[in-house]
Each structure stands twice: as structure tokens, then as C-alpha cells.
TrEMBL record:
GO terms for biological process: prolyl-tRNA aminoacylation. It comes from Brevibacillus antibioticus. Signal peptide: none annotated. Residues 38-286 form the Aminoacyl-transfer RNA synthetases class-II family profile domain. The gene is proS. The keyword Metal-binding does not apply. This is Proline--tRNA ligase. Belongs to the class-II aminoacyl-tRNA synthetase family. ProS type 3 subfamily.
Amino acid sequence: MKEDKAFVKEITPQSEDFSRWYIDAIKKADLMDYTPVRGCIVFKPDGFELWERIQEAMNKRFKETGHRNAYFPMLIPESFFQKEKEHIEGFNPELPWVTEAGGEPLEEKLALRPTSETIIGHMYSQWIQSYRDLPVLINQWANVFRWEKRTMPFLRTSEFLWQEGHTAHATEEEARQETMQMLEIYREVVEQELAIPVWKGQKTPSERFAGAVDTYSIEAMMKDGKAVQAGTSHYLGDKFARGFEIKFLDRDNQFKYVHTTSWGTSTRLIGSMIMVHGDDRGLVLPPRMAPTQVIMIPVGPMKLREKVMEAFDPLFDQIKAAGVRVRADLREETPGWKFNEWEMRGVPLRLELGPRDVENGQVILARRDTGEKVTVSLDGIGQTVVQLLEEIQQNMFQKALAFRDENSYLGIDTLEQLSAHIAKNESEKKTSGWVLAGWCGDDACESKIKEETRFTSRNIPFEPPVQKKACICCGKESQHSVWFGRAY
């Protein structure tokens, strides 16, 4: 079957312009569209279904660990932000404000939420009175606003969708356990469902969430070598509790402040999944996430199509009964055109059925991840498809892991070496990847690395592949081994 070369060329090659490739890929796959509002997009059905798959995976784990979903107002009074100065300072440049309603100026400005710590803190102060009220384990699925100057669909938009968990605990120990538990849930979902390998670790103080005591993250490498912060979990101590007077009477009849956490992931996971797995033909979606896991396409001469269609419907039903998300493309376009379109949309598995296949009791299955075609028996086709989809899922994770490891550099020990490494790769139009470097803990050294290389600290991994002995910047004894790289 000849492929439609013109169709393939509609997507810019990754090596030519990765950002352009990304925009082409998500537009051609019909995941989103732009709107008249700067930095805001429409999630089209396939794009939103990717978010629904992420929601399902997250919700299952949240509820297994005792969390419940709730919803809080989008509009937040300005005075709430003033109760936690460090928090407002961290978000102030990005805040859109509502200053009038019904043609009248408001007595108090209302912010469109950039995150909900303040409004939730206020409500928790009303709800929590005694140790019997703790812990409070609430998650919210919502939209938030950060008026970004530079935007990229799914990755960074002025309005985006996310989940934000907010919990309150009697002790620091409980709150810290919660913080790490949620970070591990994020790792599990992103690695197992989205097939994206990540590094778990702690953020440096300069990268810490505004108002947090400690911030932890999972970091993922895209195919252009840049990093995406794929999820964060924050231990907030009692800072927000003091700001919002969230107190409880403990077992000894003493008033104490609660210890709080917050944690979140967003629709940037969709963009990350596309950037990690996609290729020059378009999307490559992990089977567990794909809206359509199998696309069935009849092939062969039209005069023999009736014979093919007699076998087509029972085959469709068999695969669907196995729990597979399957669709049939019965449009009048040529099979070659259909092949290209569904490859571009990232469907993990294509099933081709022609007259000869019907005679031989077989079908052809084409894998999106490798391009490999296999001929399999119609007998037990449902189970065959399920097994193959799981193989694809695992292969995609291993492929992404190999790419990350190939582009992670462990032997760069000075700022001069890092600058030379970046210059060499830029001259050869290659990715500079990430560098594991020693850091003395001085903010000045971290700032100098950023100024001279545009590499920022991603996180201090809990389990670094090696322990670096000297600071990459000043040469003093290293306090931490840190991943550095360029980031979205």
C-alpha cells in the first residue's frame, strides 16, 4: 500500500523545528483549537478525552488513599492573598483581576484563582475545630488562570485545567507523609499510564512553590531534551494555617495550628505525553491513554468489499467485548489515506482486513510505536489485541527511558565543561539534554549557572545515578547532586 506523502509532509519534522512540529501535530490530530482570548484554547473531544483518562487514573488512586473531591469558588478576594504575603508575591505578576460587575465597581477586587490555597485555607478555618476533624483530605478538579506572556497549548496557557489537592493534618509527620504519598501517586500515574519516565526529587529553594516549606516534583524529559515539571507536591508547614487561623483543639485541650499540604498536576501532562512519544508522522499515544486504541480499516477491491464487511462487524464486536476502545473507519477515502490519518492521530494499533484475510481466517495488525505489521488468527482476536496493546505500552516506556538515559550526562563537572557541551550540541543542532551536577547549596551558584547557560535546576533526585562531589560552579564540596536542564 502506497503512503500519501503529501499528507505526511503537513507536519514539520522534529529535527527542523520541534515547537512547530508540536503545534502541527496537535492541530492535525484535532486535539485543540485557538480562541479569540489570548492564551486560551478549546479542548476538542479527543484532547479532552486524554484529560479524562488522566482524571480517571488519578481519581482512582486519590480515592483509594482516602481523598474526596470538592469544588471551591473561582473568584478569590484580594484580602485573602494579603494573609500570606509570600504566596501573593509569587503569583502577583500572573494574576487577572475582576474589578467591576453589573456596571458597578466592586468594593474589593477579586482574583481569578491561580491556585486555591487561600480560599481553601479560609474554609478550613471554619470547618476544623478539633483533632476529631482531622485529617481533611480534599482534591479539586478545576480551571485556574495565570496570565502568561508566552503560551504553548496544553503546556502553558493563560487558563488551564488541573487538579489541586489540599490537606490538613494534626502533625508535621502526617503532613510530610501525605506530601510524599501524593508525589509517588504522580510518579505511578505518569510512568504506568502515560509511559513517561520521571525523576522524583526535591526542588531547590529558588524553585520552591511560593509559601511552601518544601516542594517536591517529578521531572520528565521531552524529545528535544527540555524538561517539563510534570507534577508537584508541597509541604506547607503551618504557614498557611497561621495566616488563616486554622486551629484545632488537640487531645490535651491545647490549641494548635494544623500542618497543610498541597499538590497538583495539570493538562501539561497531555503536552508532555505528546512531546515524549511523538514522531515525524504525528502523535504516538500510549494504549492506556489513547481515546481510540484500535482502528479497523477494510482493504481490497470495492467489488469484494461486501465479503469483507460480513466478517467486519463480528470482528469489531469481539474486540470491543474484550474491553478495547475500537473504532471502524468506513469512509470512502483510500486505505492509504486512512492509514496516514490514524497514524498521525497516534492510534496504537491498526487492524486491516481484506478479502484474502477473510479467506485465510486472519487479520493484519500494524503497531504505531514500531511500524511493525503482524498477521494473526481471527481466533481469540480480542485477547491477542489486549496482549499486543500491553506490549506497546511497555515498549513505549522503555523507549522513552532509553532516550532519557542517552541524553542524561553524568560526567560534566565544571561550568566551563557545561558551556562547551551546550555550544557543541547547539552547533550540531542536537539536544544538550540534562546534566547531573554537584551543587554547594549557595543560591548564587545556582543563579550563575542559569545566567551563563540558561540551564535551571530541575530537582535534587532522591536516588541520583551518581553522587557528585564538587559544585559545578564554585568547585566547593557538593551538598547535593542536582539535575540541570532547559525547561518549558
